[in-house]
Amino acid sequence: MQTFRRYVLGKVAWYLLVLVVAVIANWYLPRLIPGNPVDIIISQLGGNATGEQAKHIYEVYVHEFGLDKPLWEQFLVYMGNLLHGDLGTSFAYPGTPVWTLIAQSLPWTIALQVPAILIGWLVGNALGALAAYRGGWFDRGAFLSSLFISSMPYYCLAILLLFGLAIAVPLFPASGGYSFANTPELSSDFLLDALGHYWLPFLSLVVVFIGGQAVGMRSMAIYELGADYVNYGRSLGIGDGRIVRYVFRNAALPQVTGLAISLGTLVGGALITEIVFNYPGVGSVLFGAIRQNDYPVISGVTLIIVVALVVANFVVDIAIGFIDPRIRAAQSGER
Amino acid sequence: MLGSFRRNTRFQISAGILLVVLVFAIVGPFLPGRGNPDALPGKLFDPPSWRLWLGTDNFGHDVLTQLMYGTRSSLVIGVVAGAVATLIGVVIGTLAGFRGGLVDDVLSGITNVVLAIPAFVILIVLSDALSNRNIFTMAVVIGVTSWPWTARAVRAQSTSLRVREHVDVARLSGAGTARLILLEVLPYMASYVSMAFVLQLAAAILAEAALSLLGLGPSNVVSLGIMLHWALLWESVRNGAWWAFVPPTLLLTVISFSLLMLQTSLNEVFNPRLRTSGAGRRRAMQPALGMGPVAAPVGAGIAPTEADVAPGARP
Asked: Residues B173-206: pLDDT tens digits?
């Protein structure tokens, strides 16, 4: 237990460092480039504001974003606000906190991604292990199609599915997370409507995910099938079912890492899928913000993506250290 | 070696496809009537016809001409970004692995921190901050954010090469560090680095497409991602104007698939143990631990995985 605690403490320190660097980068990188967002807002106002008004607006914005303060003070203010959960206010929707925009869209993204990742992981791993074990034509077919699908950019599949299954053959609704006539509420009517809009984006994500997992699992399982313990077990006359169970357990370890990391990328992993389907998730918020130069919203969204990923990586490391004693030992220098 | 290139069908197929794409992108713009990608020979979403084989896009551009220029920019961005990423990765990885000690600790630390931050986010932040983006700034930005996993993999390689006999012999005969790295270590990693470059190339093309789709692509130039951006923004999918979005989508898929296949086939050529079939293959597919990105390039669609980058040389 002593070594495990040391392992966890080491990881905590490491990920805190990563988190700090990530937050600083997210804050500092945009400031590295000449010109500031306020100039762009003013230039967008164009002829609507006279010189005097423009100057006043400029000063108000510069003051509001604290751009008139020295850099280190700006950073302290930013960090202080961040610790209070304050991500600033949107440019495009004045008065709306960035956090509200994100909080509205995050549930849609999570509801879309988590089931796709979990189901894709289960089906993909089963398929990959089966392909490795069965070999022959089944292996070749499953492997090649998985390889093709997983090397296809996920948004390309989304676009083709949208065209094929919503426009050419109108099986599914083509746009949005629910019908225009509906408003989000907890009624069976709304949920059914949302479910109808759910299938297509879900399908486009889950298919790509199955492909990627199957390819990874197949190569891990093939490696394990050639391991000494498998040959030894076979020579002892242990049944195939039991050997496959051992193989699956050993081959699944890296796949568990993959699962957790995918869960970490879930906020940022399907930005474009949401844009393709007009799905009301974080991706669509980001897309709108980029089109309107809504800097606070953009940096809020990127921050959420980073934090989700760093936290997921941390959880993976802890979980893996818990599952696999070898890693723990190697990290704390016992071997 | 040349013989094994010729015998490898995967290599032939993928290299053939890539050659066709390359000719399309390089020769296409010089064909008569395709000199100007901004010409407007038609109106909003004209369907394909004898005159315009792939119809027009939302502005009235000829889609086929746009496709040629778009493929060209996508390939240029991919090659430049891939080269930048591979160069940085090889320099940092070789130095860290070969020198060891404090240099290694510092460089590996930097690599791991950058690796833990999703590259795609940094890409969004950087591209968003650059108000005037051209192909080369885009390529450099993509390259600068995607080197860490190459660095990590190269470091593992050069750590093992450092203690090989031929390096010891050279060291005993008085070669300096630079000479050792250039003549004794790098040549042994060449096959490996070229495979890493192919993966970086594929990832960079997809990263550019994803950024452009979000609206953060290069200004004043057409690329495959930018074609998709406008096609989506003008609802070509929901208007049934398939000619505006299917060609760039298919081209991106074909490029990415054939690059990954090329990488796999290179791996088979350089690493003979992967070539055997049946039971032999089962032994050979030993994945190299500690390689591949910790965080897949978010949104880039593909991630070079551990199995993709099996080591060509082991101690």
From this structure: 877 777 777 777 788 888 888 888 988 898 899 8
B253·A313 Cβ contact <8 A: no
Contact criterion met (CB below 8 Å) for B1 and B252: no
Using the Cβ of B253 and the Cβ atoms of chain A, whether some distance falls under 8 Å is answered with yes
Q: Which of B129, B237, B240 sits opposite A33 (nearest CB)?
A: B129
**Region for A333 from its dihedrals, namely left if φ exceeds 0, alpha if ψ lies in -120 to 50, beta otherwise:** left
3-state helix, strand, coil split of chain A in percent (to 5) is 80, 0, 20
Residue A270: what are its φ and ψ, rounded to 5°?
-130, 35
pLDDT at A36: 60
Q: What local confidence, expressed as pLDDT, does residue B83 receive?
A: 93
Identify the band that residue B312 occupies on the pLDDT scale cut at 50, 70 and 90.
very low
**Cross-chain residue pair A155–B213, CB shorter than 8 Å:** yes
Q: Which of A220, A265, A298 sits opposite B296 (nearest CB)?
A: A265
Among partner residues A156, A167, A269, which is closest to B299 by beta-carbon distance? A269
Residues 88-117 of A with CB under 8 A from B: none
Contact B117 A40 (CB under 8 A): no
Q: B112 pLDDT exceeds 60?
A: yes
- Give A57-98 pLDDT, tens digit per residue: 777 777 766 666 777 777 787 788 777 777 777 777 777 888
Burial degree of B35 (CB within 10 A; 0-12, 13-18, 19+) = exposed
Res B277 pLDDT > 50: no
Closest CA to A112 of A300, A281, A293: A281
Host H or E run for residue A254: helix A240-264
Q: pLDDT tens digit string along A122-144?
A: 888 888 888 887 777 888 888 88
DSSP string, chain B: -HHHHHH-HHHHHHHHHHHHHHHHHHHGGGSTT-S-TT---S-TTPPP-SSSTT-B-TTS-BHHHHHHHHHHHHHHHHHHHHHHHHHHHHHHHHHHHHH-HHHHHHHHHHHHHHHHS-HHHHHHHHHHH-SS--HHHHHHHHHHHH-HHHHHHHHHHHHHHHTSHHHHHHHHTT--HHHIIIIIIHHHHHHHHHHHHHHHHHHHHHHHHHHHHHT-S-TTS--HHHHHHHHHHTTTTTTT-HHHHHHHHHHHHHHHHHHHHHHHHHHHHH-GGGT--THHHHHH--PPTT-S-SS--TTTS----GGGG--S---
If one compares A202 and A268, the residue with the highest pLDDT of the two is: A202
Q: Which residues of B touch A150 (CB under 8 A)?
A: 302
Report how far apart the first and last C-alpha atoms of chain A are (Å, whole number).
16
